[in-house]
Specification:
325 residues, alpha/beta, 7-stranded mixed β-sheet, 25% strand
Length: 325
Amino acid sequence: MQAWQVHENGEPSEVMRLDEIETPTPGDGQVLLKVRAANINFPDALLCRGHYQVRPPLPFTPGVEICGETEDGRRVLANPALPYGGFAEYAVADAAAVLPAPDSLDDAEAAALHIGYQTGWFGLHRRAGLEAEETLLVHAAAGGVGSAAVQLGKAAGARVIGVVGGAEKAAVARELGCDVVIDRRAEDVIGAVKEATGGRGADVVYDPVGGEAYAQSAKVVAFEGRIVVVGFASGSIPSPALNHALVKNYSILGLHWGLYNTKNPKLIQHCHEQLTELAARGAVKPLVSERVPLSGAAAAVQRVADGVTTGRVAVIPGLTEGGAA
């Protein structure tokens, strides 16, 4: 089968190589899946660079989120078990963690209703307790992780402020349903948030960026507000001033979604049921901005790493160069 392999760590476009390899054999408790769609996540770039918390042995195939097909023809969602990731014709996954793909979504959309939306659901509901009528601030609101949080926030009845970088991403954020969109390249984020909230600030801040975005969050979080830390796409890990959290009376909440797989997997199933229901009634619909053939995976992972994409970019092994499936 064809599979992208990383033989050394570095930038995705430089270290990913499309190889012909043996179809993997699943181990005990695992299942072999035909990849129908593999969505690109920022961790795929971190895996290539060797900067992710998991470091599979070289060579490995990245791709941490797929919609696949079982041997008996069922469409399912899975997080492939590395080193046999999703940027290939076949992947391996733990059978116990496989979830049914929502009928209301196509393959690429279904794959995107997994990591980003599960992270958003756990962050907003399980960790932050977001309530209707509260104000939710989402950093990188037009990206794969942020766009999911925007839709989930609106579905929960919150007022959503989206922070983006650039006019093109601002337009995407508006289409996603943001009530207020702030272009950090053209506006002062802190001043714009305070103006939009009458000086009160945001009840919940969803931050997959870190760095300067976190510093802004601490200045605009409301009394009894909650900052949900979900990632550091900026590459800069902030060091919060805990005295500031004390004086201003807000909470800093960490979220590592993957831990629920081992600590409380039943919650992941419950979350998937909630997300499937939201998708069925059209309350959420993953934004898939681009679908590329398997041959285009390395370049697409690099674009995600460079932060120039919106929503999700999906790799479709059955797609031809001309775009036909």
